[in-house]
Amino acid sequence: PPDSEELGRATWTFLHTTAAYYPEKPTPTQRANMLTLLRSLPTLYPCSHCADDFGEDIKVHPPDVSGRASLSRWLCDRHNEVNKKLGKESFDCAKTDERWKDGPAD
Ligand code: FAD
What we know:
It is an enzyme of class 1 (oxidoreductase). It catalyses: 2 R'C(R)SH + O2 = R'C(R)S-S(R)CR' + H2O2. This protein is mainly alpha-helical. The chain is 68% helix and 0% strand. The protein is built from 5 helices and no strands. The longest helix is centred in the C-terminal third of the chain and has 18 residues, at 68-85. Bound molecules: flavin-adenine dinucleotide. Flavin-adenine dinucleotide binds at residues 4-5, 8-9, 11-12, 16, 41, 45, 49-50, 53-54, 76, 79-80, 82-83, 86, 88, 91, 96, 99.
């Protein structure tokens, strides 16, 4: 099976970066495609227990694809759920853009 740590980092990088550059006012097609992307993970993500838990989590917390800020926040919260499960530190969601879009202010 794939190295789940490497796969996880790569996947979070892709997802957070894609959310950071998602439009503030997405078209219906963009919303639908983002929903399909996120809803695909529970069936396709190649770590089956990760995929199962993520599927349960997004059933309780459905994706908010209404715009960039809300999607980024939703994803940060989902990642923090995984962090909690793994005993990792919680990430401050106010820093999501700094981490994934703008870079640190100096
Ligand atoms: P990662 O958690 O990969 O984070 C990468 C970087 O993202 C961090 O360095 C930090 O800068 C930033 N970051 C951290 N938290 C947030 C946040 N909340 N919002 C925005 N940015 C943040 N592993 C398992 O062992 N069991 C599982 O059940 C499991 N489920 C997963 C489900 C999904 C959908 C994904 C994508 C991954 C899952 N993983 C799981 C992998 C796990 O989340 C980590 O990716 C892996 O353990 C490597 O962790 P890391 O400490 O290198 O940082």
